[in-house]
# Entry
Amino acid sequence: METTENQGGTSIDYDGIPIVEEQIDGTDYRIDAGRGAAVAISARETGTWSWQAVSEGRWDGVRLRAKGLGYPIVEQLGKALKRAAGELASGD
# Structure
């Protein structure tokens, strides 16, 4: 089982199913549940196996906030979270 600890001290299980997985400019990103509104954001180069925790973000149901990642990446990940939330709400 592959796990790591993110910046907030929360353990991330990379064998589990992420909330979102998104490829942006040759990098794979995944978002896993954290505590409360916190989410753990990890990244790896596309085609590799090892994930690295890159940020702990906040998701308020509308907007993702994450330090240490560029605005375009946070925006794309936020849109992916919105899609996932919509699918979950509709039962897809």
Notes: The chain has a mean pLDDT of 88. The longest strand covers residues 38-45. The chain has one helix and seven strands. Strands lie at 3-5, 11-13, 20-24, 27-33, 38-45, 52-59, 64-66.
